[in-house]
Amino acid sequence: MSETSASIDYGTLMHDAMRGLIARVLRRVAREGLPGDHHFFISFDTNHPGVQIADWLHERYPEDMTIVLQHWFDGLDVRDDGFTVTLNFGDQPEPLTVPWAAMKTFVDPSVEFGFRFERRLDDEGPDDDPDGEEAPFAELEEEPVEAPRKDAEVVSLDRFRK
Questions:
Q1: Nearest to residue 44, comparing CAs of 142, 151, 143, 138?
Q2: DSSP character string of 46-107
Q3: What's the pTM value of the predicted model, to 2 decimals?
Q4: Rounded Cα gap, residues 96 and 50, in angstroms
C-alpha cells in the first residue's frame, strides 16, 4: 500500500450506508405504505442546494425543518439523490424535495430508531461556522402527532472520530 494513500473515512461510509438504508425504507413505504405504527420524523437543512419547498415554508423554517410522514402524505418518490413528497400543511398540500445530503436526522419513534447525520469540518454548507468549528444541529422540533411518541435513540458518530 502506498504511503500517500488516505485513511479509511468510516464516518462518511457510515453516513452513506445510513442514507442507503433510509432510501430503501422509504422506497418500501412508497410501494406498500407505512406498516403498523411506523412513522418518521425527518429533519433537513432548508438552505441546502436542491431543497425545494414553498417560499412561505422557507420563511417559517429559514434554517431547518422537521417533517412527519405518518397519516397523510402523497407522491412519495425516492431517487438516488433524495426524495420528494407532498405533505398537508393546514389543508394546503405542498410538495417538498429533499436531497439526501440535506438530511440532518431520521427517527422512527415507533421502534426507537434514529440517526443523526453529523456535519464535518470539510462539509460544505451555508450554516458552516466561519471560525472552523462544526456547525451545531437544531434539536428535533416537537410536532403534534396523534399517536403517543416514544423516545428514540439517536446514534452519534463522534465516538468513532479521531
A1: 138
A2: TTSTT-B--HHHHHHSSSEEEEEESS-EEEEEE-SSEEEEEEESSS-EEEEEEEGGGEEEEE
A3: 0.68
A4: 10
